[in-house]
Write a structure and sequence with these properties.
Keywords: Transferase. InterPro entries: AB_hydrolase_1, AB_hydrolase_fold, FAD-dep_OxRdtase, FAD/NAD-bd_sf, HAT_MetX-like. One of its GO terms (biological process) is homoserine metabolic process. It contains 21 helices and 32 strands. The chain is of the alpha/beta class. The chain has three domains: 170 residues, 3-Layer(bba) Sandwich (FAD/NAD(P)-binding domain), CATH 3.50.50.60; 191 residues, D-Amino Acid Oxidase, subunit A, domain 2 (D-Amino Acid Oxidase, Chain A, domain 2, 2-Layer Sandwich), CATH 3.30.9; 289 residues, Alpha/Beta hydrolase fold, catalytic domain (Rossmann fold). The strands form six sheets. Strands 3, 4, 5, 6, 11, 12, 13, 14 and 15 form a nine-stranded mixed sheet that branches. A nine-stranded mixed sheet has the order 18-19-20-24-21-25-26-31-32, with helices on both faces. Helix 13 packs across helix 16.
């Protein structure tokens, strides 16, 4: 289409040509729900055509049966209802099953192109169901569309497109039928036809569809429709948006541009992306007393020269014809159609083209006397890449767009509007006051999903999902790098993989990637879990132990909804370790055209019996704590002892024997070094020393003996005390003089080993930043993980291998030789099963947690992989002139959610 200068502000003209479709005005044609404009509205939709009315319809329908009140929705229309492109089109519901699909395959890949075709085809059934459910009469008819070619070369090109789809095994191609040259004229009834392809399509009276749809919601107290109210500007501030019109202003928190060809008048940044283009259409009738063959099909008719710009045609139930297009007759007169918003006049080179069109085109119509009864023009919104703009307006929170349908909106808009309505309902939340754990992550955002059905069949409502982003999403939405956190992690990538996050030279390069981390369901750090309100309703209280079982697949499905909301069209790569690695594998099943590459680290294709058993032991630790109370405990008095014990048990699986031996051996903690164990302990008086040693580490115990043989504690006194060395090498005198009863904040010198001290420290650190019910929920989530579930044949001898073989992305598998939880053998299994994989070993004695400690190795392997499989992104100049560095960043603080420590952990 070439470059295009920004257009001046413009509005629909006041005196448009009258299309046939508007010859029977509906009672709501000039609807004004109230005499005056509302002062404010939750949502303002600009445009009352196909897009605007469909969005409003879905916004209301989506909340039926929900506890949440319906939002106030105001629809503003510059002229009458449905007076724009939809009220002026050809009445076709014609999905594109082959014409542009090969182009989309080259541009976006097979899966994405097939999704487009199936999405358009699904509108046929969606319309059938909608019209039956709402009892709307709009002369809807399901038929076959014949794409007819009058030029042999053009027909041959179409055949090759069709055969390419068949060769790829695309199911929707089964609906297409090819008719060769020898039969084309007889089948189509068109003179000189050289070939034709037919496929399922529909015809309808579009104006009656939109007005019928509006009539189903117009009586709702939530809806306010204002015809003859053009929007002249939208002004935004910190509190929302002000919609200005000649009749006054409306304040709103959310505005939707359903203004199609007129969009750039309000959003100048779209002036080159959505260009108004004028087209022509007419209604052809047959004089009384004349007859003509009834045309049972709808048509797309090519040109004799094979050029684009033919005609589209439908026959109405009364035998009359709607036909339009003929762009080849005016394509060279850009002043007549390109960047034109005037639909009050006809296109001069074409205004007489259809006068005898039926007689010269169709066999049997020569003596029909067919003539043009009405002729009109309409303004379409042509998209620069033929793809519509549906979603959030970039860099403008609370503003949404549904426009740029390239003259092909009928098989796209209704279901696209449904998705956009859900997106509009995905409220951004500023905080989560009921959940104290979410406050530990200071830079995360929240989005609320109106409803989400889990794999179990349970539906959650108003589902919060927490996430963080770093870097900038590219204009094409294809540079997203999704990071998946481990069991006890959060969306704060900087906390647990901070050294990998930065600019050029770091794997998570925010100068090239849009780095996103989303919190998993069940986690206490912001997404729906035991510590959030049921269905987002404070009156229902917290979920607590009633939070339903979620799966890894639930996580990636709800995360994709958020990614779509953020405008991500393609994920460059997904990276995750441990539980995050499970999510990474599941992401791959969205297909290689959506996810380009994956990096699963120290994970498994299905949760092993070994891991399931460790999870059970950890849950039993929590269950056995008397304060657990079947999960109905308070934040003020949680089962900290049980949760701490579960964490200690987990840590043994995260490290290796050699790791503990080399770091701790049989060392005893040195009390002269700073201890990070929280809380205070009372020092036993010498007579109680044996009792204290026996109960050392028992968090629920008493501070003094209570048995009948217990001696009375003497009065505390200052003295230098000797304590039994746990290595039984005699007593040990500590250099520090202490009070045997301990003053406030003072700690008892240790009678235990450094390894014990380290575990206790980690347990006590953990209970202050995690919830016991959430721990149970997450470990149960892990138990459900199995990539072969519903993906492998029931009779398969190796279902996991069969499921892994379906992963098409380039894959880097990172494993740790010393990992005793997710063994290196499991990493070999993943790499052997995925066709395009490479396996790398992280050298470390630290066990499973090495992927959170060996930053240099992890960074190097991922960088090498990205440079191999993502050269288009990695070769780009870094944003903001960032300079490449060699190696990872320095760890500057101890991790809250990971395992990295700045302090000398051998001091425990």
């Amino acid at each position: 289409m070439g470059t295009h200068q920004p257009l001046p502000s413009f509005l629909p003209v006041d005196n448009p040509t009258r299309p046939f479709w508007r010859t029977e005005p509906h009672p709501l044609d000039e609807l004004r729900s109230t005499e005056a404009l509302p002062d404010q509205s939750d949502v303002v939709i600009i445009g009352a055509g196909y897009s605007g009315v469909s969005i409003a319809y879905h916004l209301l329908k989506h909340l039926e049966g929900h506890d949440k009140p319906h939002p106030a929705i105001t629809i503003l229309e510059a002229r009458q209802i449905c007076s724009g492109a939809t009220g002026r089109n050809g009445g076709h519901l014609r999905p594109d099953l082959y014409d542009r699909i090969p182009t989309y395959i080259k541009r976006y890949g097979v899966d994405a192109a097939a999704e487009v075709a199936n999405f358009e085809l699904s509108h046929i059934k969606a319309f059938k169901n909608l019209l039956a459910e709402e009892n709307i009469d709009c002369e809807f008819n399901i038929t076959r569309c014949l794409s007819v070619y009058l030029d042999e070369a053009a027909g041959e090109k179409a055949r090759k497109k069709y055969e390419e789809l068949v060769s790829r095994g695309l199911a929707f191609a089964d609906d297409i039928h090819y008719t060769p040259p020898k039969n084309a004229e007889g089948v189509s009834g068109i003179k000189g036809a050289k070939a034709c392809l037919s496929y399922t399509s529909g015809t309808l009276w579009p104006y009656k569809l939109i007005l019928g749809l509006l009539s189903k919601i117009a009586d709702s107290p939530a809806i306010n429709v204002q015809a003859f109210t053009p929007v002249t500007s939208v002004v935004s501030d910190n509190s929302g948006h002000i919609i200005h019109t000649p009749r006054g202003s409306v304040r709103t928190s959310k505005v939707v541009y359903a203004s199609n060809a007129y969009t750039s008048g309000l959003l100048p940044e779209y002036s080159a992306s959505i260009v108004p283009c004028r087209g022509i259409c007419c209604h052809i009738g047959i004089p009384e007393g004349k007859t003509a063959p009834f045309l049972p099909y709808s048509y797309g008719i090519g040109t004799k020269t094979g050029e684009s710009g033919g005609s589209y045609l439908i026959s109405r139930p009364d035998g009359s014809i709607i036909v339009g297009g003929a762009q080849r007759t005016f394509i060279d007169r850009k002043d007549q159609w390109y960047a034109v918003i005037d639909d009050s006049t006809l296109i001069e080179p074409t205004k007489d083209y259809y006068n005898d069109f039926m007689q010269r085109t169709f066999k049997g119509w020569e003596d029909s006397g067919a003539y043009v009864k009405e002729i009109w023009t309409g303004i379409m919104g042509y998209s620069y890449d033929t793809s519509p703009h549906v979603g959030e307006v970039p860099d403008k929170p609370g503003q949404y767009i549904c426009a740029g349908f390239d003259g092909h909106g009928m098989p796209v808009i209704f279901l696209a509007a449904k998705e956009l309505a859900e997106m509009i309902h995905h409220e951004r939340l500023d905080s989560q006051p009921e959940n104290p754990f979410s406050n530990l992550i200071t830079d995360q955002l929240f989005v609320s999903i109106p409803s989400f059905t889990l794999e179990s069949g349970v539906t959650l409502y108003n589902v919060p999902v927490a996430y963080t982003t770093r870097g900038r999403l590219s204009e094409t939405g294809d540079n997203a790098l999704v990071i998946c956190h481990a069991l006890s992690g959060s969306a704060d990538v900087a906390d647990w993989w901070g050294p990998l996050l930065g600019g050029p030279g770091q794997a998570f390069d925010t100068s090239r990637f849009f780095v996103i981390c989303l919190n998993s369901l069940g986690s206490p750090y912001g997404s729906a879990s035991a510590v959030t309100y049921k269905d987002g309703n404070p009156e229902k209280g917290l979920y607590g132990p009633e939070f339903p079982l979620t799966t890894v697949r639930d996580d990636v499905r709800i995360h994709k909804i958020v990614l779509d909301y953020l405008g991500v069209r393609q994920i460059a790569a997904v990276v995750g370790g441990s539980m995050g690695g499970m999510l990474t594998l599941e992401y791959a099943y969205f297909g290689k055209d959506y996810v380009r590459a994956i990096v699963p680290i120290a994970t498994s294709p299905r949760h092993s019996a070994w891991c399931i058993s460790w999870g059970e032991a950890q849950r039993q630790s929590i269950y056995s704590d008397p304060k657990y109370e079947d999960g109905y405990y308070s934040f003020d008095d949680p089962p900290a002892t049980g949760l701490g014990a579960a964490r200690m048990s987990a840590l043994l699986t995260y490290r290796s024997r050699n790791s503990f031996e080399s770091r701790f051996g049989r060392n005893v903690p040195d009390p002269t070094k700073q201890q990070n164990i929280k809380g205070t302990e009372k020092l036993p008086t010498p007579p109680n020393e044996h009792w204290a040693i026996h109960n050392d580490g028992h968090k629920g115990g008493r501070s003094t003996p209570s048995g009948r043989n217990s001696p009375t504690s003497p009065t505390p006194q200052e003295t230098e005390v000797q304590y039994m060395d746990p290595q039984f090498s005699g007593t040990k005198t500590f250099s520090k003089t202490i009070d045997t009863a301990l003053k406030s904040g003072q700690k008892r010198p240790p009678t235990y080993f450094s390894a014990q001290s380290y575990l206790r420290y980690q347990g006590e650190k953990f209970v202050k930043r995690f919830d016991a019910n959430c721990y149970i929920a997450i470990t149960r989530k892990l138990d459900t993980h199995d990539v072969s579930r519903q993906r492998a044949s029931p009779t398969s001898s190796d279902p996991v291998r069969e499921a892994l073989a379906q992963i098409q992305q380039p894959t880097l598998v990172l494993g740790i030789e010393s990992d005793g939880l997710f063994t290196f053998e499991e990493q070999k299994e993943i790499a052997a099963g995925i066709p395009d994989s490479r396996l790398k070993r992280i050298e470390s004695p630290e066990g499973h947690d090495a992927f959170l400690l060996q930053f240099e190795q992890v960074n190097r392997y991922i960088l090498e992989f990205f440079r191999e499989v993502l050269p288009d992104i990695m070769s780009k100049a870094p944003a903001d002139g960032a300079v490449e560095v060699d190696g990872v960043n320095k760890l500057t603080k101890s991790s809250t959610f990971g395992e990295a420590e700045v302090e000398d952990i051998t001091a425990w």
